[in-house]
Amino acid sequence: MYFPCLRGRQFELIALRELLEKSLLSKSILPIVEPVKLSSTLIKTIQAFEDYDSKLALVINPTVGSFNSDCKNEKNTHNREKLLEMQRKEFIINAYHINPAVEKLIKTLQECGEKISNIISICENEDYITIYEKLFNMEKPVYNLIPDERIFLRRIRENIVMMDDRFKKKTRNVDYIETEDEPFSSDHLYYSDDGYVGFSDYSIIGNEYTETGFAPYAVAIHIVYFDNENRLRVRHFVSDTNEDITNPAGKFAEALQKLVDWNKSEMLNTYGINEFMRMYDNEIYPGLGTVKKLSLMHHLELIGRYLDGEI
């Protein structure tokens, strides 16, 4: 099973919602969304999981973004109450970062009658393993996301999910020109043999989070694909005229031309790729958020097909 960790940015949420609406999100994928804002897009996306009878994991104690302060703002009362209402339903699995502040949350959870066996833990810091052991010495979470490191494996042994950031993020988009094509992940091939019940990463977005974006000098499209041994690789399609921030539509057209030429031999056929082809044929520039959305949709659909035995 695949557990993509997404930071709840608008394009990530819309990607999930559109995959659900098009029946392209496999039941073998359980998205873990860490909400960074209490937005109407977040509420609509969570509602979509209930509407399409699918499970979603929601991080209750996000470590980035303005979600916590948004919840305290009176103008967000409607969204907060709607979120609390949906959190009580079975289609949402509560997920918790293990850190010094989580103990109070878990105790409150138990006082409300919630079972530990229904939650997901995310333990990425070696110093916090002791907190995990203290909280879950009797009953274990349904899934425990941990790095593939011996110090974690020695002390957290049940229901473990291999977690890593497989996207090698560059400082600037133009830097991807130096490594046009590179390995992405083989976790889907070996997680079971290594004793895990699933694998997790941050897709083609990466773990790094920033509050605000900026106009890039270059446009880059990141597309994952399987090689001849079913290992996932990622190919970066980067624009050519990268001297300044002007003409993003032209830069996108340059990067898209490379993707179209490459796919003539690769023959990838997902919704995300087909949308890129449609934009090429119709000379459409959708904006950088949509570029990321389609790349993410392609990755999740491709992995879903693999896990469902269609590849």
Automatic annotation (TrEMBL):
Superkingdom of the source species: Bacteria
Name of the protein: Sce7725 family protein
Protein species of origin: Desulfuribacillus alkaliarsenatis
